[in-house]
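## Example pair
The file below holds two records. Each record gives the amino-acid sequence first, followed by its structure token line.
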Amino acid sequence: MIKSVSPIVAVAVLLSGPHFVRADEVATPTPAVRLRLDGGATSIDTLLDAFQAAIDAKDERALHRLRVNQREYLEIIIPGTVKPGEPPRKVEPTPSMWFWQMLNQKSEDMGRHLIKVYGGHKTKRIAVKFTKGSREFGLYKAHGNVELTLQYETGEQQELRTGSIAEVNGRFKFIGFNQK
């Protein structure tokens, strides 16, 4: 298994060609009822507030509830990473699960790292920057990579990078956590 590939690179691989995609198959669009983020935040600010609260409280479970789950990744992110108006991409189950497992493990590891390095403080968000801007895809919109400037109770400021945010039907969740 390749351990140095980021989740964003994994999505780029899906976009780059027929590596795991059979060109003769066209995916059936995801039913609208399933095209949702379970418990997603109602805004980016609300998501970032919850992210900060989870980090400040060193609450790993709360932190991971803020990112897409397996169903959302397999049914929205992977098939939906196409140009707007194109049908959802059909990807075989084995590579889809590999991409999910890679993203999930890296996000869990990064979540623990974020809590270890930044957790246990009362922070105030000073600035938010999206280093990659926003991009519309077939089934979702991506806002990334998020860069937060936080101020600790001591007055010290710290920059924290979190990863990209998915927006689906007015709900928001992190796709995964990374600091690149």
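Second record, same layout:
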Amino acid sequence: MTTLALTGDVMLGRKVAEVLNDYMRPEEPWGDVRPFLDASDLRIINLECAITDNEQPWTRTPKVFHFRTQPSAIETLRTARIDACSLANNHTLDFEEQGLLDTLEHLDAAGIRHAGAGRNREEAADPAILTVPADHTRRVALVAYTDNEPPFAAGTDRPGTNYLPVSLKPDVLRRVERAVSDVREMGVDTVIFSNHWGPNMVQRPREIFRRFARAVIDRGVDIYYGHSAHIFQGVEIYRGKPILYDTGDFIDDYTVDPRLRNDWSFLFQVSVEEGTLERLDLTPVKLSYARVDLATGGEREEILDRMERLSAEMGTVFTRREDALVLERS
């Protein structure tokens, strides 16, 4: 059995970058969650910033926030043994194409795989193929997409993201089907579909998003890994496959909404056997300034209650076990 650790958005830029440069050790942003990451076979994040020295921000279209971190922040990813990053999101080109090219170079040099952005459209669509360390015969594919920031989309000879609208149109779903077919031909056991999609601060996915996620599963995906809302959404099990509609935030410096609580989230650990879901563990976490830790006390209970309620609306019933939510294949 292979256990995959999936997190919400990891933003190492802006004030997080400042404290990493000034006084915070590279491992500190992961807090006491790091042993849980270590216990997993593979660790995958959505990296929501550029890793670059380039100081020229994107100005071709209006954009309020620009996130970048210094190349030294790669050590923060290495200390958590991050295996792969999704780069298909609305901040990958915050510091122009050069910022993306630098990010690719730094990740490659650190041996961290990536998917969802590249030097051209073809490379942006390439999967990240991961081999499970404990069993080199087991391979996992990460394919990554975003419906955010259409101007960031890669072109025939232009760096950018792997843009895909949320749509049930045949040409959109054919792209998904081809991507899954291609990685299956590589001998992959498990396919993860990462999608940075939809609006911020929305607690429940709209119906078109639910229909799209199910259509993706219908086309052979094993795990749907969503993010973008900055708050976690409920989990649906469809045809035995987990749909994580939104995994929320994980590391950032953001202002906290007192009602929606974007400082509450989970570490999502998905255990699979040749693509079949065996167990899903959701461990509640609490974000503080530039750091994530295990949630405790009353806050932990509120986080668990919210996820139970949102998931029950989708027909998913978890068991509480050791301060986490657990779902096992019956």
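Notes on the second record: The longest helix spans residues 170-185. The two ends are 16 Å apart (CA to CA).
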